[in-house]
Amino acid sequence: MSSSNFEDLSLDLQTEIVARVASTSLADYFNMKKSCKKIRYLAEEGFVYGKVCLEKIPIDAWYSSNGRISLFINQCLENENPEALFRQAMVEYFCWGEIETATEYVNSAAVLDHHGAAYLLGLMLLFHGEEYKYDGIKMLSTVKKSSCFNGSVPTYRKLLIELLRKTKIQNLDVLYYRPSCCDDRVFHGYCDACFCDFELSYIFNALDRC
Question: Among residues 146, 135, 69, which one has the least CA distance to residue 113?
Answer without folding.
Answer: 146
